[in-house]
Specification:
about 20% strand, metal ion binding, alpha/beta, 4-stranded antiparallel sheet, Alkaline Phosphatase, subunit A
Length: about 525
Amino acid sequence: DGMNVLFIVVDDLRPVLGCYGDKLVKSPNIDQLASQSVVFSNAYAQQAVCAPSRVSFLTGRRPDTTRLYDFYSYWRVHAGNYSTMPQYFKENGYITLSVGKVFHPGVSSNYSDDYPYSWSIPPFHPSTEKYENDKTCRGKDGRLYANLVCPVDVTEMPSGTLPDIQSTEEAIRLLNAMKTNKEKFFLAVGYHKPHIPLRYPQEFLKLYPLENIPLAPDPWVPEKLPSVAYNPWTDIRQRDDVKALNVSFPYGPLPDDFQRQIRQSYYAAVSYLDTQVGLLLNALDDAGLSNSTIVVFTADHGWSLGEHGEWAKYSNFDVASRVPLMFYVPGMTTFSVSQGERVFPYLDPFSHSLGLVPQGRSRKVVELVSLFPTLAELAGLPVPPACPETSFHVALCTEGTSIVRYFNTSEEKMVEEKDGCDDTCRCFDEEPVAFSQYPRPADTPQWNSDKPKLKDIRIMGYSMRTVDYRYTVWVRFYPNNFSANFEDVHAGELYRMETDPNQDYNIYNNISHGVIFKKLLS
């Protein structure tokens, strides 16, 4: 009989985790999960903003097929009646449960998180979610503000709690209800932090003394960055503390000390998240489900922390599109666990820094659109077929491919040790590529550059990431018929990862594009 699935998706989490080599962060519980998992160090979202990314990976279709580039349409009405990953599990006999932010709430999931199609019971949302953007942050003057940087005393918060704490409690309640149930479950848990505002229990600041917090390695706007590629971080400018700094639009910059505070609070929010993940996985142990449950951990996209003079998501850079991705599969990524043995004892970030390493690490470039077929295969369900060229009329198919074939990471090492291959074309074709895209309303940064509505999109930045390169073309886009004109290129970017890991030196104008461009269009 198949496995249960615990699917953990985090809002705006870039891979600042110990298991991804970050030396500053304290993330012992996620690192412990990684130590029993296959970890993908090159995983990318299909669009670096919440609703489009989530609808893409939950349906297994790319944004050009869901036709969602903003927040304002429901794919079943606007594009095609596509089955979702939880719906597929539900139709295959699973109880499917949603806790917290899994689908993006609102019209893009029909104001119901796609219930009843995707879920067996109505999704749970924490009651304190509605206070997220209220004035709950105490300023130096003792008054309350709606700040970006917002460490809080949880006892002073409405209901004495925070949304992610409530989501963990509900998820644990559901796990305990499921353990006596004979039916298999697919439980999706969506955590809010480190999404802005950076509102978390203030004690987590102790883990990150401000003097230890560096600026981004490249806190300037790169000289050769096309203006269309820049995201002017409009959302953080609307927070009271950022507004008070009165920085110029669109390039800023924010004062160095405030940059450090944002970075400090992002890290603190990640450690707070880590404790919630730790409590959840510890409860999976307690319920005796660790040996029969697949655990997936990922995020909807990343978040820029001052790199390229940018903040937030809304771009095609790795800092915005790259996500953590790991799979714990009992008996496959780890040895079978004997009944009662603990796999996930809770680790306190204030006392543990274990320096655990991933069970297996794959450097293969993968995409979130591949989650659906991958989880189907891991759970022993038929893998949904690949979509035809045009698939608006096809209810069940996927534009991703199962990445289970990359789970045996020992083979990867052997291939790397053998020499490259003589026939470069063949090599290039076999190399996995991740596609991302981002819409813009104009060639220069506008107040709506970060989140243009569909009708205002004029340019689409199509980006491809291989192990060696990040290549982006910004082309004319027609929102009335969802078409892009690749002959009308407004700007381009090319970064060579080996010499430019932070993507600061755009060499697009230095090279011939024939080969790469054909690859992008194929």
